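re: the backbone from monday

yeah here it is again, tokenized this time
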């Protein structure tokens, strides 16, 4: 069986001394030494100063809204994992969906202003598959309407554009360290704040709201990362470049073998100068021999578990059905993407021969 991804784990022998150190220290959480060191290493590696690690990224998205005092409507993408909109609703806010750009699959800035109302308080875009949003255009819109911007950057760890890290945009950016991501800490998340004062507030909120031992001025949550997760993260940083190189090699094989397959189009990198190769999405177009879903089924029969990321789009899920779709017809690009995109297996350790087999099977199915 070949899954769409598999967690990268460093050699266990490298992790055991860190576990022994944690056992001897007796410090498991609460801003321990591994968490502090991990945050410092991340800040240096990413070139982003105000870094806060979390137990999971969904809680980081929730804390981001609390830290920015958001109450109202948040414009977001319909083409994303459901956690983006879940975090908005869990904070009592309302997700408002606007359509995406057909090439990058990120939110389309040209459609944002039409969805702004007096109740709009923020924009929450997704850097989809590691391709950057048009952040400059989004920032201009946010400035004109006095809106906050929180980037769901869960696909974009270590990605850069010509000016630097993709995580520097907006008031806040949030990254996932879930097991399926390019960089994992078993479970975990990262929140990057634009300003030092905002980081201080974020760090209070993720620790129940404590200002000091006896002072809590606003309700917080337990979003802290454990020492075990932070220690793994520190170790993983030493393997990051190699893991990305292995992913890049798989990406190259796919592009070489699928380039001439009629009806299959590989997504090109957009507004990104350093990729992390987190996903390998293909567009199964109308001139391919079968539909996307038929190809998906054929691959599964051969033990290849590709994924239809993201199908269905969030507004078509039962939890969000019929809600916050002022202009449902404007989501046509997102719906078309959800019916045509298939993410193929990509992860360190996936044998090149298996990747070639997948490509040849796709070509055969389309004939």
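seq for it, each position gets an aa:
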């Amino acid at each position: 069986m070949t899954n769409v991804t598999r967690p990268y784990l460093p050699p266990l022998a490298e992790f055991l001394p860190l576990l022994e150190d944690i056992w001897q220290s007796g410090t498991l959480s609460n801003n321990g030494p591994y968490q502090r060191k991990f945050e410092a290493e991340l800040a240096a590696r990413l070139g982003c100063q105000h870094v806060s690690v979390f137990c999971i990224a969904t809680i980081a998205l929730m804390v981001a809204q609390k830290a920015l005092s958001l109450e109202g409507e948040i414009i977001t993408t319909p083409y994303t994992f459901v956690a983006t909109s879940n975090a908005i609703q869990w904070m009592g806010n309302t997700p408002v969906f606007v359509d995406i750009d057909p090439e990058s699959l990120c939110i389309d800035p040209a459609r944002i202003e039409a969805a702004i109302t007096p109740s709009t308080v923020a924009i929450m875009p997704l850097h989809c598959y590691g391709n950057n949003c048009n952040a400059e255009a989004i920032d201009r819109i946010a400035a004109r309407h006095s809106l906050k911007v929180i980037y769901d950057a869960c696909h974009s760890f270590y990605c850069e554009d010509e000016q630097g890290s993709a995580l520097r945009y907006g008031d806040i950016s949030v990254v996932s360290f879930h097991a399926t991501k390019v960089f994992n800490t078993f479970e975990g998340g990262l929140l990057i704040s634009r300003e030092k004062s905002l980081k201080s507030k974020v760090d209070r909120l993720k620790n129940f709201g404590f200002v000091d031992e006896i002072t809590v001025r606003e309700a917080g949550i337990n979003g802290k990362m454990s020492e075990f997760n932070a220690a793994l993260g520190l170790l993983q940083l030493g393997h990051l470049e190699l893991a990305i190189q292995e992913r890049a090699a798989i990406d190259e094989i796919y592009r070489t073998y699928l380039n001439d397959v009629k009806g299959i189009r590989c997504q090109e990198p957009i507004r990104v100068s350093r990729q992390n190769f987190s996903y390998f999405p293909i567009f199964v177009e109308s001139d391919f021999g079968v539909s996307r879903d038929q190809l998906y089924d054929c691959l599964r029969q051969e033990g290849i578990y590709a994924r239809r990321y993201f199908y269905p789009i969030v507004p078509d899920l039962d939890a969000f059905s019929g809600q916050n779709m002022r202009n449902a017809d404007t989501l046509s690009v997102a719906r078309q993407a959800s019916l045509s995109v298939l993410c193929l297996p990509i992860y360190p350790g996936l044998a090149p021969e298996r990747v070639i087999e997948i490509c040849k099977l796709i070509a055969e199915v389309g004939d």
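The chain has eleven helices and 16 strands. The CA atoms of residues 19 and 233 lie 13 Å apart.
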